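This protein record is not my work; I was only asked to verify it. Would you go through it and say whether the fold makes sense for this chain? Here is the record exactly as it was handed to me.
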Amino acid sequence: MSPPLFLLLLLGLTGAQATTDLRMAAAMAAGLCKTRPTDLVFIIDSSRSVRPSEFEQVKVFLTKVIEGLDVGPNATRVGVVNYASRVKNEVSLKTHRTKTGLVKAVTKIEPLSTGTMTGLAIQFAQNVAFSEAEGARKSPDISKVAIIVTDGRPQDNVKDVAQRARDAGIEIFAIGVGRVEMNTLRQIASDPLDDHVDYVESYSVIEKLTKKFQEAFCVTDLCASGDHDCEQVCISTPGSYKCACKDGFTLMENGRSCSGCSNAATDVVFLIDGSKSVRPENFELIKKWIFQIIEKLDVSERNVHVGLVQYSSTVKQEFPLGRYNNKKDLKEAVKRMEFMGKGTMTGQGLNHIRESSFTPANGARPGVPKVCIVFTDGRSQDYIGEAAKKAKESGFKMFAVGVGSAVEDELKQIASEPTADHYFYTADFKAIGQIAKKLHIPTCPEEDPCECDSLKKFQKKVEEALQALTKKLESMSKRIALLENKIV
Protein backbone atom coordinates (compact mmCIF):
# COMPACT_ATOMS: atom_id res chain seq x y z
CA MET A 1 0.00 0.00 0.00
CA SER A 2 1.47 3.38 -0.96
CA PRO A 3 2.21 5.88 1.84
CA PRO A 4 -0.44 8.50 0.85
CA LEU A 5 -3.27 5.95 0.94
CA PHE A 6 -1.91 4.47 4.14
CA LEU A 7 -1.98 7.91 5.74
CA LEU A 8 -5.51 8.64 4.51
CA LEU A 9 -6.76 5.60 6.39
CA LEU A 10 -5.58 7.20 9.63
CA LEU A 11 -7.38 10.52 9.31
CA GLY A 12 -10.23 9.31 11.51
CA LEU A 13 -7.96 9.35 14.56
CA THR A 14 -8.50 12.27 16.96
CA GLY A 15 -6.72 14.19 19.72
CA ALA A 16 -3.14 13.79 20.91
CA GLN A 17 -3.15 10.05 20.21
CA ALA A 18 -3.97 10.79 16.59
CA THR A 19 -0.81 12.90 16.28
CA THR A 20 1.31 10.14 17.79
CA ASP A 21 -0.26 7.39 15.68
CA LEU A 22 -0.06 9.47 12.51
CA ARG A 23 3.63 10.25 13.08
CA MET A 24 4.37 6.58 13.72
CA ALA A 25 2.31 5.44 10.76
CA ALA A 26 4.02 7.98 8.52
CA ALA A 27 7.41 6.74 9.69
CA MET A 28 6.45 3.12 8.99
CA ALA A 29 4.97 4.00 5.62
CA ALA A 30 8.03 6.01 4.59
CA GLY A 31 10.37 3.22 5.64
CA LEU A 32 11.89 5.30 8.46
CA CYS A 33 10.99 2.78 11.15
CA LYS A 34 13.16 -0.07 12.42
CA THR A 35 12.49 -2.23 15.44
CA ARG A 36 14.83 -1.55 18.33
CA PRO A 37 17.08 -4.42 19.54
CA THR A 38 15.02 -6.32 22.13
CA ASP A 39 14.94 -9.61 24.00
CA LEU A 40 11.25 -10.51 23.55
CA VAL A 41 9.52 -13.47 25.21
CA PHE A 42 5.89 -14.43 24.48
CA ILE A 43 4.18 -16.19 27.42
CA ILE A 44 1.10 -17.97 26.04
CA ASP A 45 -1.70 -19.62 27.99
CA SER A 46 -2.65 -23.05 26.54
CA SER A 47 -4.83 -24.21 29.44
CA ARG A 48 -7.84 -26.40 28.76
CA SER A 49 -10.12 -23.32 28.42
CA VAL A 50 -8.24 -22.42 25.22
CA ARG A 51 -9.66 -24.56 22.42
CA PRO A 52 -7.26 -25.92 19.76
CA SER A 53 -8.68 -23.61 17.07
CA GLU A 54 -8.22 -20.62 19.39
CA PHE A 55 -4.64 -21.65 20.14
CA GLU A 56 -3.98 -21.63 16.38
CA GLN A 57 -5.21 -18.03 16.28
CA VAL A 58 -2.76 -17.12 19.05
CA LYS A 59 0.08 -18.60 16.97
CA VAL A 60 -1.06 -16.55 13.94
CA PHE A 61 -0.93 -13.42 16.14
CA LEU A 62 2.62 -14.28 17.30
CA THR A 63 3.69 -14.90 13.71
CA LYS A 64 2.38 -11.54 12.50
CA VAL A 65 4.11 -9.63 15.31
CA ILE A 66 7.35 -11.49 14.54
CA GLU A 67 7.07 -10.59 10.85
CA GLY A 68 7.23 -6.90 11.79
CA LEU A 69 10.47 -7.32 13.79
CA ASP A 70 14.14 -7.10 12.80
CA VAL A 71 15.07 -10.60 13.94
CA GLY A 72 18.73 -11.45 14.33
CA PRO A 73 21.53 -12.09 16.85
CA ASN A 74 22.36 -8.36 17.01
CA ALA A 75 18.79 -7.15 16.55
CA THR A 76 15.68 -8.65 18.18
CA ARG A 77 15.77 -12.13 19.71
CA VAL A 78 12.47 -13.93 20.34
CA GLY A 79 11.53 -16.68 22.78
CA VAL A 80 8.21 -18.43 23.48
CA VAL A 81 7.07 -19.86 26.83
CA ASN A 82 4.00 -22.13 26.78
CA TYR A 83 2.13 -22.74 30.03
CA ALA A 84 -0.85 -24.43 31.64
CA SER A 85 -0.38 -26.38 34.92
CA ARG A 86 3.27 -26.69 33.92
CA VAL A 87 5.63 -24.51 31.93
CA LYS A 88 7.48 -25.40 28.73
CA ASN A 89 10.25 -23.37 27.09
CA GLU A 90 9.16 -23.83 23.47
CA VAL A 91 11.58 -21.37 21.81
CA SER A 92 14.76 -20.08 23.44
CA LEU A 93 16.12 -16.58 22.76
CA LYS A 94 19.32 -18.18 21.48
CA THR A 95 17.73 -20.83 19.25
CA HIS A 96 16.50 -19.10 16.09
CA ARG A 97 18.52 -16.30 14.49
CA THR A 98 16.31 -15.89 11.40
CA LYS A 99 12.68 -14.92 11.01
CA THR A 100 11.91 -17.94 8.83
CA GLY A 101 13.18 -20.46 11.38
CA LEU A 102 11.42 -18.66 14.20
CA VAL A 103 8.03 -18.63 12.46
CA LYS A 104 8.38 -22.30 11.59
CA ALA A 105 9.09 -23.15 15.27
CA VAL A 106 6.00 -21.19 16.41
CA THR A 107 3.72 -23.10 14.03
CA LYS A 108 4.82 -26.40 15.64
CA ILE A 109 3.84 -25.45 19.22
CA GLU A 110 1.09 -27.65 20.70
CA PRO A 111 -1.31 -26.73 23.55
CA LEU A 112 -0.69 -28.27 27.00
CA SER A 113 -4.43 -28.27 27.86
CA THR A 114 -4.33 -28.43 31.68
CA GLY A 115 -4.61 -25.75 34.42
CA THR A 116 -3.66 -22.04 34.48
CA MET A 117 -0.44 -21.36 36.46
CA THR A 118 0.23 -17.83 35.22
CA GLY A 119 2.43 -16.86 38.17
CA LEU A 120 4.61 -19.92 37.64
CA ALA A 121 5.01 -18.98 33.96
CA ILE A 122 6.09 -15.40 34.80
CA GLN A 123 8.60 -16.69 37.33
CA PHE A 124 9.95 -19.19 34.77
CA ALA A 125 10.33 -16.41 32.21
CA GLN A 126 12.31 -14.25 34.65
CA ASN A 127 14.57 -17.05 35.95
CA VAL A 128 15.01 -19.14 32.82
CA ALA A 129 13.77 -17.57 29.55
CA PHE A 130 15.48 -14.22 30.28
CA SER A 131 18.73 -15.83 31.53
CA GLU A 132 22.06 -15.47 29.74
CA ALA A 133 22.16 -19.26 29.39
CA GLU A 134 19.04 -19.05 27.21
CA GLY A 135 20.38 -16.19 25.07
CA ALA A 136 19.34 -13.03 26.96
CA ARG A 137 21.78 -10.11 26.67
CA LYS A 138 23.14 -8.09 29.60
CA SER A 139 23.54 -4.80 27.72
CA PRO A 140 21.54 -1.84 29.12
CA ASP A 141 20.75 -0.91 25.50
CA ILE A 142 18.76 -4.14 25.02
CA SER A 143 15.18 -3.98 26.33
CA LYS A 144 13.61 -7.04 27.96
CA VAL A 145 9.94 -7.40 27.04
CA ALA A 146 7.35 -10.07 27.88
CA ILE A 147 3.95 -10.33 26.17
CA ILE A 148 1.47 -12.51 28.09
CA VAL A 149 -1.67 -13.83 26.42
CA THR A 150 -4.24 -15.42 28.76
CA ASP A 151 -7.97 -16.11 28.86
CA GLY A 152 -8.63 -17.28 32.39
CA ARG A 153 -8.28 -16.78 36.13
CA PRO A 154 -4.81 -17.84 37.36
CA GLN A 155 -4.63 -20.67 39.89
CA ASP A 156 -1.62 -19.14 41.64
CA ASN A 157 -0.35 -15.75 42.82
CA VAL A 158 0.60 -13.34 40.04
CA LYS A 159 0.85 -9.97 41.81
CA ASP A 160 4.12 -10.50 43.72
CA VAL A 161 5.72 -12.59 40.98
CA ALA A 162 4.95 -9.96 38.32
CA GLN A 163 6.28 -7.21 40.59
CA ARG A 164 9.60 -9.04 40.97
CA ALA A 165 9.84 -9.47 37.19
CA ARG A 166 9.17 -5.77 36.60
CA ASP A 167 11.72 -4.86 39.28
CA ALA A 168 14.24 -7.02 37.39
CA GLY A 169 13.77 -4.73 34.36
CA ILE A 170 11.26 -6.74 32.35
CA GLU A 171 8.57 -4.68 30.63
CA ILE A 172 5.33 -6.69 30.68
CA PHE A 173 2.37 -6.38 28.30
CA ALA A 174 -0.77 -8.30 29.36
CA ILE A 175 -3.38 -9.35 26.79
CA GLY A 176 -6.66 -10.70 28.12
CA VAL A 177 -9.20 -12.68 26.10
CA GLY A 178 -12.89 -13.40 26.77
CA ARG A 179 -13.70 -14.04 30.46
CA VAL A 180 -10.31 -13.00 31.81
CA GLU A 181 -10.21 -10.92 35.03
CA MET A 182 -9.14 -7.36 34.24
CA ASN A 183 -7.73 -6.95 37.75
CA THR A 184 -5.35 -9.84 37.05
CA LEU A 185 -4.10 -8.13 33.90
CA ARG A 186 -3.50 -4.91 35.83
CA GLN A 187 -1.51 -6.81 38.49
CA ILE A 188 0.70 -8.31 35.78
CA ALA A 189 1.33 -5.38 33.45
CA SER A 190 3.90 -2.57 33.62
CA ASP A 191 2.98 1.10 34.01
CA PRO A 192 1.38 3.00 32.42
CA LEU A 193 -1.42 0.43 32.43
CA ASP A 194 -3.23 2.09 29.52
CA ASP A 195 -0.27 1.22 27.29
CA HIS A 196 0.40 -2.26 28.70
CA VAL A 197 -3.05 -3.82 29.20
CA ASP A 198 -5.19 -4.94 26.25
CA TYR A 199 -8.47 -6.85 26.07
CA VAL A 200 -10.20 -8.59 23.17
CA GLU A 201 -13.61 -10.27 23.23
CA SER A 202 -12.39 -13.48 21.60
CA TYR A 203 -9.35 -15.12 20.03
CA SER A 204 -10.87 -14.51 16.60
CA VAL A 205 -10.06 -10.77 16.86
CA ILE A 206 -6.68 -10.95 18.62
CA GLU A 207 -4.98 -10.17 15.29
CA LYS A 208 -6.17 -6.57 15.55
CA LEU A 209 -3.50 -6.02 18.22
CA THR A 210 -0.73 -6.82 15.72
CA LYS A 211 -0.35 -3.20 14.60
CA LYS A 212 -0.08 -1.96 18.17
CA PHE A 213 2.87 -4.22 18.91
CA GLN A 214 4.58 -3.53 15.61
CA GLU A 215 4.44 0.17 16.48
CA ALA A 216 5.51 -0.48 20.09
CA PHE A 217 8.80 -1.89 18.82
CA CYS A 218 9.20 0.72 16.08
CA VAL A 219 12.10 3.15 16.30
CA THR A 220 11.97 6.06 13.88
CA ASP A 221 15.13 7.01 12.00
CA LEU A 222 15.53 10.38 13.75
CA CYS A 223 18.03 11.66 11.18
CA ALA A 224 15.71 10.93 8.24
CA SER A 225 12.70 12.44 10.04
CA GLY A 226 14.63 15.59 11.00
CA ASP A 227 13.92 15.08 14.72
CA HIS A 228 17.46 15.86 15.90
CA ASP A 229 19.59 18.86 16.93
CA CYS A 230 22.82 18.21 15.02
CA GLU A 231 24.21 21.44 13.57
CA GLN A 232 25.68 19.86 10.42
CA VAL A 233 25.65 16.06 9.98
CA CYS A 234 23.33 13.49 11.62
CA ILE A 235 24.32 9.79 11.72
CA SER A 236 21.62 7.24 12.57
CA THR A 237 22.24 4.66 15.31
CA PRO A 238 19.78 2.04 16.64
CA GLY A 239 17.04 4.01 18.37
CA SER A 240 19.08 7.21 18.43
CA TYR A 241 21.64 9.26 16.48
CA LYS A 242 25.02 10.94 16.78
CA CYS A 243 26.30 14.18 15.30
CA ALA A 244 29.31 14.85 13.10
CA CYS A 245 30.78 17.80 11.22
CA LYS A 246 31.71 18.58 7.63
CA ASP A 247 35.34 18.62 6.51
CA GLY A 248 37.22 21.53 8.05
CA PHE A 249 34.96 21.69 11.13
CA THR A 250 35.43 20.18 14.60
CA LEU A 251 32.67 18.65 16.74
CA MET A 252 32.37 20.60 19.97
CA GLU A 253 32.16 19.09 23.45
CA ASN A 254 28.34 19.31 23.50
CA GLY A 255 28.30 16.66 20.77
CA ARG A 256 26.01 18.72 18.51
CA SER A 257 27.69 21.96 17.44
CA CYS A 258 30.60 22.38 15.03
CA SER A 259 33.49 24.82 15.24
CA GLY A 260 35.12 26.09 12.07
CA CYS A 261 38.18 27.57 13.72
CA SER A 262 41.24 25.98 15.28
CA ASN A 263 41.32 28.49 18.14
CA ALA A 264 37.90 28.58 19.84
CA ALA A 265 39.13 30.13 23.11
CA THR A 266 36.58 32.61 24.51
CA ASP A 267 35.94 34.16 27.93
CA VAL A 268 32.20 34.38 28.69
CA VAL A 269 30.73 36.13 31.76
CA PHE A 270 27.04 36.09 32.71
CA LEU A 271 25.81 39.26 34.47
CA ILE A 272 22.52 38.27 36.12
CA ASP A 273 19.87 40.55 37.63
CA GLY A 274 18.98 39.27 41.14
CA SER A 275 16.65 42.14 42.10
CA LYS A 276 13.46 41.50 44.11
CA SER A 277 11.23 42.03 41.04
CA VAL A 278 12.66 38.83 39.51
CA ARG A 279 11.17 36.67 42.33
CA PRO A 280 12.69 33.36 43.54
CA GLU A 281 10.69 31.07 41.22
CA ASN A 282 11.79 33.04 38.15
CA PHE A 283 15.38 33.09 39.39
CA GLU A 284 15.34 29.29 39.15
CA LEU A 285 14.17 29.63 35.53
CA ILE A 286 17.14 31.92 34.86
CA LYS A 287 19.49 29.21 36.16
CA LYS A 288 17.98 26.72 33.72
CA TRP A 289 18.38 29.31 30.96
CA ILE A 290 22.09 29.59 31.81
CA PHE A 291 22.32 25.77 31.62
CA GLN A 292 20.91 25.90 28.07
CA ILE A 293 23.57 28.37 26.94
CA ILE A 294 26.37 26.46 28.69
CA GLU A 295 25.29 23.34 26.76
CA LYS A 296 25.98 25.17 23.48
CA LEU A 297 29.54 26.12 24.48
CA ASP A 298 32.75 24.14 24.07
CA VAL A 299 33.68 24.42 27.75
CA SER A 300 37.20 23.17 28.45
CA GLU A 301 40.53 24.32 29.83
CA ARG A 302 41.71 25.26 26.33
CA ASN A 303 38.54 26.71 24.79
CA VAL A 304 35.57 28.41 26.51
CA HIS A 305 35.84 29.66 30.10
CA VAL A 306 32.72 30.87 31.95
CA GLY A 307 32.29 33.28 34.87
CA LEU A 308 29.13 34.33 36.73
CA VAL A 309 28.25 37.66 38.39
CA GLN A 310 24.98 38.52 40.14
CA TYR A 311 23.90 42.07 40.87
CA SER A 312 21.12 43.71 42.83
CA SER A 313 21.78 46.73 45.07
CA THR A 314 25.37 45.44 45.18
CA VAL A 315 27.46 43.22 42.91
CA LYS A 316 28.59 39.69 43.78
CA GLN A 317 31.01 37.54 41.82
CA GLU A 318 29.59 34.02 42.06
CA PHE A 319 32.66 32.47 40.46
CA PRO A 320 35.48 33.81 38.21
CA LEU A 321 36.54 32.74 34.74
CA GLY A 322 38.36 29.43 34.50
CA ARG A 323 37.46 28.06 37.93
CA TYR A 324 35.30 25.32 36.37
CA ASN A 325 36.41 23.77 33.08
CA ASN A 326 33.64 21.22 32.51
CA LYS A 327 29.89 21.60 32.14
CA LYS A 328 28.95 19.42 35.09
CA ASP A 329 30.92 21.50 37.61
CA LEU A 330 29.72 24.71 35.97
CA LYS A 331 26.07 23.74 36.33
CA GLU A 332 26.55 22.70 39.95
CA ALA A 333 28.09 26.10 40.67
CA VAL A 334 25.20 27.90 38.95
CA LYS A 335 22.72 25.85 41.03
CA ARG A 336 24.38 27.11 44.22
CA MET A 337 23.79 30.78 43.29
CA GLU A 338 21.47 32.33 45.93
CA PHE A 339 18.89 34.99 45.06
CA MET A 340 19.91 38.44 46.35
CA GLY A 341 16.44 39.99 46.05
CA LYS A 342 17.09 43.76 46.46
CA GLY A 343 17.57 46.70 44.03
CA THR A 344 18.61 46.93 40.36
CA MET A 345 22.04 48.55 39.91
CA THR A 346 22.75 47.47 36.33
CA GLY A 347 25.32 50.21 35.71
CA GLN A 348 27.27 49.08 38.77
CA GLY A 349 27.18 45.52 37.44
CA LEU A 350 28.51 46.61 34.02
CA ASN A 351 31.38 48.51 35.66
CA HIS A 352 32.26 45.41 37.68
CA ILE A 353 32.50 43.35 34.48
CA ARG A 354 34.95 45.82 32.94
CA GLU A 355 36.99 46.61 36.04
CA SER A 356 37.09 43.14 37.62
CA SER A 357 35.59 40.14 35.78
CA PHE A 358 37.60 40.54 32.56
CA THR A 359 40.95 41.09 34.28
CA PRO A 360 43.78 38.51 34.55
CA ALA A 361 43.34 38.54 38.34
CA ASN A 362 39.90 36.96 37.82
CA GLY A 363 40.92 34.42 35.19
CA ALA A 364 40.60 36.44 31.97
CA ARG A 365 43.10 35.37 29.29
CA PRO A 366 45.07 37.97 27.31
CA GLY A 367 44.28 38.03 23.61
CA VAL A 368 41.11 35.93 24.01
CA PRO A 369 37.71 37.31 22.86
CA LYS A 370 35.52 38.55 25.74
CA VAL A 371 31.73 38.04 25.76
CA CYS A 372 29.28 39.35 28.37
CA ILE A 373 25.64 38.23 28.58
CA VAL A 374 23.50 40.64 30.61
CA PHE A 375 20.11 39.41 31.89
CA THR A 376 17.67 41.86 33.50
CA ASP A 377 13.97 42.21 34.18
CA GLY A 378 13.58 45.90 35.04
CA ARG A 379 14.72 49.53 34.75
CA SER A 380 18.13 50.18 36.23
CA GLN A 381 18.25 52.36 39.35
CA ASP A 382 21.55 53.86 38.22
CA TYR A 383 22.84 55.29 34.95
CA ILE A 384 23.99 52.62 32.51
CA GLY A 385 24.92 54.68 29.43
CA GLU A 386 28.57 55.39 30.27
CA ALA A 387 29.18 51.92 31.75
CA ALA A 388 27.73 50.20 28.65
CA LYS A 389 29.75 52.44 26.33
CA LYS A 390 33.05 51.74 28.13
CA ALA A 391 32.38 47.98 28.11
CA LYS A 392 31.93 47.98 24.34
CA GLU A 393 34.92 50.30 23.83
CA SER A 394 36.99 47.78 25.79
CA GLY A 395 36.29 45.30 23.00
CA PHE A 396 33.72 43.17 24.85
CA LYS A 397 30.96 41.53 22.81
CA MET A 398 27.81 42.52 24.75
CA PHE A 399 24.53 40.59 24.67
CA ALA A 400 21.48 42.12 26.38
CA VAL A 401 18.53 39.93 27.37
CA GLY A 402 15.42 41.48 28.91
CA VAL A 403 12.23 40.03 30.39
CA GLY A 404 8.99 41.54 31.65
CA SER A 405 9.49 45.15 32.74
CA ALA A 406 12.97 45.48 31.26
CA VAL A 407 13.38 48.78 29.42
CA GLU A 408 14.15 48.09 25.80
CA ASP A 409 16.07 51.37 25.29
CA GLU A 410 18.46 50.35 28.08
CA LEU A 411 18.91 46.89 26.55
CA LYS A 412 19.79 48.46 23.19
CA GLN A 413 22.33 50.71 24.91
CA ILE A 414 24.02 47.65 26.36
CA ALA A 415 23.95 45.48 23.21
CA SER A 416 26.79 45.39 20.67
CA GLU A 417 26.26 46.15 16.99
CA PRO A 418 24.39 44.94 15.04
CA THR A 419 21.77 45.35 17.77
CA ALA A 420 19.39 42.83 16.16
CA ASP A 421 21.95 40.06 16.79
CA HIS A 422 22.78 41.07 20.36
CA TYR A 423 19.51 42.23 21.92
CA PHE A 424 16.64 39.94 22.97
CA TYR A 425 13.38 40.58 24.80
CA THR A 426 10.35 38.57 25.94
CA ALA A 427 7.44 39.47 28.19
CA ASP A 428 7.30 36.11 29.96
CA PHE A 429 10.00 34.32 31.99
CA LYS A 430 8.64 30.99 30.74
CA ALA A 431 9.66 31.95 27.19
CA ILE A 432 13.34 32.64 27.90
CA GLY A 433 14.24 29.13 26.74
CA GLN A 434 13.48 30.27 23.18
CA ILE A 435 15.98 33.12 23.58
CA ALA A 436 18.64 30.62 24.65
CA LYS A 437 18.11 28.77 21.37
CA LYS A 438 18.48 31.96 19.31
CA LEU A 439 21.42 33.48 21.17
CA HIS A 440 24.61 32.57 19.32
CA ILE A 441 27.95 33.23 21.00
CA PRO A 442 30.81 33.46 18.49
CA THR A 443 33.76 31.38 19.69
CA CYS A 444 36.07 32.01 16.73
CA PRO A 445 38.30 35.09 16.83
CA GLU A 446 37.12 37.81 14.48
CA GLU A 447 39.42 39.36 11.92
CA ASP A 448 40.93 42.65 13.00
CA PRO A 449 39.37 45.23 10.66
CA CYS A 450 42.52 47.36 10.99
CA GLU A 451 44.63 44.47 9.72
CA CYS A 452 42.24 43.97 6.81
CA ASP A 453 42.37 47.69 5.91
CA SER A 454 46.18 47.67 6.01
CA LEU A 455 46.30 44.61 3.78
CA LYS A 456 43.92 46.24 1.30
CA LYS A 457 46.01 49.43 1.21
CA PHE A 458 49.19 47.41 0.64
CA GLN A 459 47.52 45.41 -2.10
CA LYS A 460 46.33 48.60 -3.79
CA LYS A 461 49.83 50.11 -3.74
CA VAL A 462 51.32 46.94 -5.23
CA GLU A 463 48.72 46.97 -8.01
CA GLU A 464 49.42 50.66 -8.77
CA ALA A 465 53.20 50.00 -8.87
CA LEU A 466 52.70 47.05 -11.24
CA GLN A 467 50.54 49.18 -13.54
CA ALA A 468 53.21 51.92 -13.62
CA LEU A 469 55.93 49.35 -14.30
CA THR A 470 53.88 47.82 -17.11
CA LYS A 471 53.52 51.24 -18.77
CA LYS A 472 57.28 51.86 -18.54
CA LEU A 473 57.99 48.45 -20.09
CA GLU A 474 55.61 49.23 -22.94
CA SER A 475 57.31 52.59 -23.52
CA MET A 476 60.74 50.99 -23.48
CA SER A 477 59.62 48.29 -25.90
CA LYS A 478 58.47 50.96 -28.38
CA ARG A 479 61.81 52.83 -28.14
CA ILE A 480 63.77 49.63 -28.72
CA ALA A 481 61.63 48.88 -31.77
CA LEU A 482 62.32 52.40 -33.19
CA LEU A 483 66.07 52.02 -32.64
CA GLU A 484 66.04 48.62 -34.38
CA ASN A 485 64.27 50.18 -37.40
CA LYS A 486 66.89 53.03 -37.65
CA ILE A 487 69.79 50.56 -37.55
CA VAL A 488 68.26 48.50 -40.32
In short: The chain is about 40% helix and 20% strand. The longest strand covers residues 38-45. The domain at 266-438 is CATH 3.40.50.410 (Rossmann fold). The mean pLDDT is 83.
